[in-house]
TrEMBL record, chain A:
Gene3D superfamilies: 1.20.58.1030. It comes from Salvia divinorum (Maria pastora). InterPro entries: GINS_A, GINS_bundle-like_dom_sf, GINS_Psf1, PSF1_C. Belongs to the GINS1/PSF1 family. Residues 54-80 are annotated as: Disordered. This is DNA replication complex GINS protein PSF1-like isoform X1.
Automatic annotation (TrEMBL), chain B:
One of its GO terms (biological process) is DNA replication. It comes from the Eukaryota. Keywords: DNA replication, Nucleus. Residues 72-137 form the GINS subunit domain. Belongs to the GINS4/SLD5 family. The lineage of its organism: Eukaryota, Viridiplantae, Streptophyta, Embryophyta, Tracheophyta. Its main location: nucleus. This is DNA replication complex GINS protein SLD5. InterPro entries: GINS_A, GINS_bundle-like_dom_sf, GINS_Sld5, SLD5_C, Sld5_GINS_A. Residues 166-220 form the DNA replication complex GINS protein SLD5 C-terminal domain. It comes from Salvia divinorum. GO terms for cellular component: GINS complex. The keyword Nucleus applies.
Length: 224, 220
C-alpha cells in the first residue's frame, strides 16, 4: 500500500517518549525516498498520456467545427470522443493517486526530520555546543551539522545581547543551593569565590554557577 | 539612568527604581508572551530599562557585600536580582522558541517580522537558513524536482501550504485590568460579553488580540 512506510516512519517518532532522541532510521527513510521516485516514474508517463488525450480531444472538436459533417459521422466522432474522455479520466485519477502519495510521503519525511530537529534544538538548551557521543551516534550527518549551526546561531545572538540565556532555566527560589560534585572539576573561579570542586564534595554554590554543571551531569542538586 | 550617581546614592536609586513598576511590567510581558500563540511586539524599552536596573542591582549587591551589610539583607536583594534575571532570560528565550517554531511564517509576514528586535531578526534569518539547509540535505534534494520546495507541498500548490502557522483561534485565559463593558467577540456581532475588572475569561486569542496589544487585558 502506498504511503505505509512513510506512516511507519512518523509513528516511530510518535512512539518515542517526548524529547528523547533515537537513532535516525536511515533504512526506512531511504525506502520512502525510493518510493517517491517510484511514484514519479508512474506519474510521468501518465502525465504525457493525459497531454496526448487532451490534444486529441482538442483536434477533434476543432475539426468538427471546421468541416461540416453529416449526422452519422457526428455521432461516430461523439463516440470516439467519449472513449478518449474516459481514458483521460482514468489516467487523470491514476496520476492523482501517485501525486497525492508523493505529497503524503514528502509530508511524512519532512515531519520526521523537522520534529527531530526540534528535539535536537531542545538539547542545545541543555548542553553547551558539544553533544555527548551517545547522542551523536543517533543523529544523521546533516543533523549533526544542523546542531552545530544552530548552536552557533544561538551563540551569536547571545553574544550580541551580551546575556547568557542557557542558564536560569527554572524559576529561582534561593540564590544558593546545596550540591554534590560528581566529577573532579578542579579549581574554578566562581562568581563569588574560588572553589575546589573535587568529586563527592558537598557545597553551597550560587545557583547560577552550579546550573551549568548540573545540566552537564557533573553535579547534582541536593534537596530537602 | 544617571550614570554620575555616586556609590552612596545607589541605595536611594534602588528604592526609587523599585517604586516604578518595571519588574511588574516585565512579568506581564513575560506572561503574555508565554500564553499568546503568536509572537508579540518586542518590549524594547522595557528590556533595556530592566537590564539597566539589573546592572544597578548587581553593583549595589556587590557594594553591600564589600561594606559588610547584614548577609540576610544582601541575600534578599540577591533573590530579587535573580528573579528579575530569570524573568528577562525566560522572556527572551520564549521569544526565540516561538521564532524557531514559526520562522517561515514570520519571515513572510511583514507585520510579524517587524515585531522582532534587530538581534532577533538576525537570529531568525540565520535560523531559517540553518533549518532550510538541513531539510534540503535530508529530504528535499532527494525528491523529484516539482516537490522540492520547503514551503509548498508540490509545484502544483497555488500557495504556501506547508508553513507552520500559529493558531490564533486557540483559547487563552485572560484577566482584564479595567472594566471594558460589552465586548464583541466575533466579526458577526453575534456574541457579546461583559468584561469586568479582574475577572478571568477563557476566550479565543483572536477575539481579544487587540486588547492584549493595547495592554488592556493580560494573559495568564
Amino acid at each position: 500500500m502506498y504511503g505505509r512506510k512513510a506512516s511507519e516512519l512518523v509513528k516511530e517518532f510518535a512512539s518515542v517518549e517526548h524529547g528523547q532522541v533515537f537513532t535516525f532510521n536511515n533504512d526506512l527513510f531511504a525506502q520512502v525516498l525510493e518510493e517517491c521516485d517510484g511514484h514519479l516514474l508512474h506519474l510521468q508517463p501518465l502525465m504525457r498520456k493525459i497531454q496526448e488525450h487532451e490534444d486529441k480531444l482538442k483536434d477533434k472538436s476543432r475539426s468538427q467545427e471546421e468541416i461540416g459533417i453529416s449526422e452519422d459521422e457526428t455521432s461516430k466522432s461523439q463516440d470516439e470522443k467519449t472513449l478518449i474522455q474516459n481514458a483521460l479520466k482514468s489516467d487523470q485519477f491514476g496520476a492523482l493517486v501517485h501525486h497525492l502519495s508523493l505529497v503524503r510521503n514528502k509530508r511524512c519525511l519532512m515531519a520526521y526530520v523537522y520534529k527531530r530537529a526540534e528535539v535536537i534544538r531542545s538539547l542545545g538548551w541543555m548542553v553547551d555546543s558539544v553533544l555527548p557521543e551517545t547522542i551523536q551516534e543517533k543523529l544523521s550527518t546533516s543533523e549533526k551539522e544542523y546542531f552545530k549551526n544552530h548552536a552557533a546561531t544561538l551563540q551569536s545572538y547571545m553574544a550580541e545581547l551580551d546575556l547568557h540565556l542557557t542558564v536560569d532555566m527554572i524559576p529561582p527560589k534561593d540564590p544558593y543551593i546545596k550540591v554534590r560534585v560528581l566529577d573532579d572539576i578542579g579549581e574554578i573561579a566562581l562568581s563569588d569565590q574560588v572553589a575546589n570542586l573535587a568529586r563527592h564534595a558537598i557545597m553551597f554554590l550560587r545557583r547560577t554557577d552550579a546550573e551549568q554543571y548540573i545540566t552537564q551531569g557533573q553535579m547534582e542538586e541536593l534537596t530537602g | 539612568m544617571d550614570s554620575g550617581a555616586g556609590e552612596s546614592s545607589a541605595a536611594d536609586d534602588y528604592e526609587s527604581l523599585m517604586s516604578t513598576t518595571d519588574a511588574e511590567l516585565l512579568k506581564t510581558a513575560w506572561r503574555n508572551e508565554k500564553a499568546a500563540p503568536e509572537i508579540l511586539n518586542f518590549a524594547a524599552d522595557l528590556v533595556q530599562r530592566s537590564r539597566q536596573q539589573i546592572q544597578l542591582m548587581e553593583e549595589m549587591v556587590d557594594d553591600y557585600i564589600n561594606d559588610g551589610v547584614d548577609p540576610l539583607t544582601v541575600s534578599l536583594y540577591q533573590i530579587d536580582l535573580d528573579r528579575t534575571m530569570f524573568l528577562l532570560r525566560s522572556y527572551l528565550r520564549t521569544r526565540l522558541q516561538k521564532i524557531e517554531k514559526y520562522v517561515f511564517h514570520i519571515q513572510k509576514t511583514a507585520e510579524e517580522w517587524n515585531r522582532l528586535s534587530k538581534q532577533e531578526q538576525k537570529f531568525a534569518s540565520r535560523f531559517a537558513g540553518d533549518i532550510k539547509n538541513h531539510l534540503d540535505q535530508s529530504v528535499l534534494s532527494r525528491l523529484p524536482d516539482q516537490y522540492q520546495s520547503h514551503l509548498r507541498q508540490s509545484a502544483a500548490s497555488e500557495e504556501d501550504d506547508m508553513v507552520p502557522e500559529p493558531q490564533l483561534d486557540s483559547y487563552v485565559v485572560c484577566r482584564s485590568k479595567k472594566y471594558l463593558g460589552t465586548y464583541q467577540l466575533d466579526d458577526g456581532g453575534e456574541e457579546l460579553i461583559n468584561i469586568e475588572v479582574d475577572d478571568m475569561y477563557a476566550l479565543p486569542y483572536k477575539a481579544i488580540k487587540p486588547l492584549v496589544e493595547s495592554g488592556q487585558v493580560d494573559l495568564v
